[in-house]
C-alpha cells in the first residue's frame, strides 16, 4: 500500500488464480472498505473510498510482476475496534512475494493439465518454460 497524497492510496494487483475476481468486482462496484490491522499491537483502521483499476498506471513499473494498480480515492477514515484482533508476529515472507530482479515461483497448480484452458497465454508459456504439464496426481 502506498500513500500518494492526503486523499489517495495505491496498491499493486498480483496474479493469484488468474481469475481477477477482486479486480472484476472493483470494476463493477468501485466502492471499497479497507481494513488495516496491526497484529503485533492490536490496532485497526478502516478506510472507505472509491477504487479505480488501471493496467497502464505509471506506478506499475514500481511493482515487480504486478499486473494492475488499484488507486483508492479516500472518502473516510476511522479507527475500528481492535478488541478481537489476535496477536501475531511475521515469521517469514512467502516465497511467492515478487521481488525486483527475480521471478516469483510458478504455483504448482498452474502446471496441472486440466487447468491450462483457463490460464492466460502468459501463464501457459511460463508453464512450458518451467517444467511443463503435470497431472493432478503429480502435485
What does it look like?
This protein is mostly beta strands and 139 residues long. The protein folds into two domains: 79 residues, Pnp Oxidase, Chain A (Roll), CATH 2.30.110; 31 residues, no CATH class. Strands 1-2-5-4-3 form a five-stranded antiparallel β-sheet. It is built from two helices and five strands. A hairpin with a 2-residue loop joins β1 and β2. The model has no long low-confidence stretch (mean pLDDT 89). The radius of gyration is 18 Å and the shape is globular.
- The count of domains is 2
H and E string: EEHEEEH
Output the number of helix runs: 2
Structural class: mainly beta
Proper CATH architecture of the largest domain: Roll
Ranges where pLDDT stays below 50 over 5 or more residues in a row are: none
| Oligomeric grouping of the chains | single chain
Main sheet record: 5 strands, antiparallel
- Through-space gap between termini: 33 Å
CATH superfamily of the largest domain: Electron Transport, Fmn-binding Protein, Chain A
Which fold name fills CATH's third level, the topology of the largest domain?
Pnp Oxidase, Chain A
The whole-angstrom Rg is 18 Å
Strand order of the largest sheet: 1-2-5-4-3
The rough form would be described as globular
CATH class of the largest domain: Mainly Beta
Average of the residue pLDDT scores: 89
Q: Beta fraction of the residues?
A: 25-35%
Number of strands: 5
Helical content (DSSP H or I, runs of 4+): 10-25%
Amino acid at each position: 500500500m502506498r500513500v500518494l497524497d492526503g486523499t489517495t492510496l495505491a496498491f499493486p494487483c498480483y496474479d493469484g488464480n488468474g481469475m481477477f475476481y477482486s479486480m472484476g468486482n472493483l470494476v463493477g462496484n468501485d466502492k471499497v472498505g479497507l481494513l488495516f490491522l496491526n497484529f503485533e499491537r492490536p490496532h485497526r483502521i478502516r478506510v472507505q473510498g472509491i477504487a479505480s483499476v488501471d493496467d497502464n498506471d505509471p506506478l506499475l513499473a514500481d511493482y515487480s510482476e504486478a499486473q494492475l494498480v488499484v488507486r483508492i480515492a479516500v472518502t473516510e477514515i476511522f479507527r475500528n475496534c481492535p478488541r478481537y484482533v489476535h496477536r501475531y508476529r511475521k515469521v517469514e515472507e512467502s516465497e511467492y512475494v515478487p521481488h525486483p530482479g527475480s521471478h516469483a515461483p510458478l504455483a504448482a497448480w498452474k502446471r496441472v493439465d486440466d487447468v491450462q484452458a483457463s490460464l492466460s497465454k502468459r501463464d501457459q508459456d511460463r508453464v512450458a518454460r518451467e517444467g511443463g504439464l503435470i497431472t493432478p496426481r503429480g502435485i
